[in-house]
Predict the 3D structure of the following.
Amino acid sequence: MNVISSADAPGGAPGDAAAVLAFVERSPAAVARHDRAAWIALFAADCVIEDPVGSRPHIAGDRRVIERFYDTFIEPNIIEFRHGRDYVAGLQVLRDLSLEIRMAPRVVIRVPMYLVYELCREGGELRIRRLAAHWELRPMLMQLLRCGIRGLPPALALGWRMIRLQGPGGTLGFMRAWRSVGTAGKSAVIAALTREDPPLHPVADAKIIAAGNHVTLRIGGAGVEGVFQAVKQGASLLERHCWTQVA
């Protein structure tokens, strides 16, 4: 298996990493302030939001697509970003992080994820062309269920907002993320990495995320420390990428 290094990623000069990361940081900052206009303004006119990966993407034909996404999933909640490592490759950033989502005073959901930003230049300014959030829907919903009666009002409110703002098709499209390559996909990726020469392996504290047909995990070995991502299709691993440039 040929692992593609993040050093091979197109776009951007080596000195741009700090500027790219500073731009990306404007997204969680706007979320924390509940600054709807500032968050929406970060996106390119033809952007795609996959949140989570495996659900039906939100493809912007106009700003209303981004506005409805914000109003559905961000506006009603208090969201705290807990950052781990950041990896920058040209105009792409991968953030190893987790979210703490306060849906109600006594309902807090913790969501481990890998968040990928693909940027472009629009009118000479950086913009987000694609936002891909790799997290697992099933564990998130199970946390909400374990909240018991306290979790019922925010769960019903979320369902109603999704139907009202995303429509029945969008709601069903979101639930597509319930299915993923799962444990079998994770095991296949780990096994493939151990067959590398020299072998690679998950680091001790790595979270392994299966979102749709993507598997993402932090790896080490052979002088490599980074985040590996691949698409599992049948018995094959496609679109392999290893993010190694730590910001």
Q: What stands out?
A: Helices lie at 17-33, 36-41, 63-74, 137-146, 152-175, 182-194. The radius of gyration is 18 Å. The CA atoms of residues 209 and 216 lie 5 Å apart.
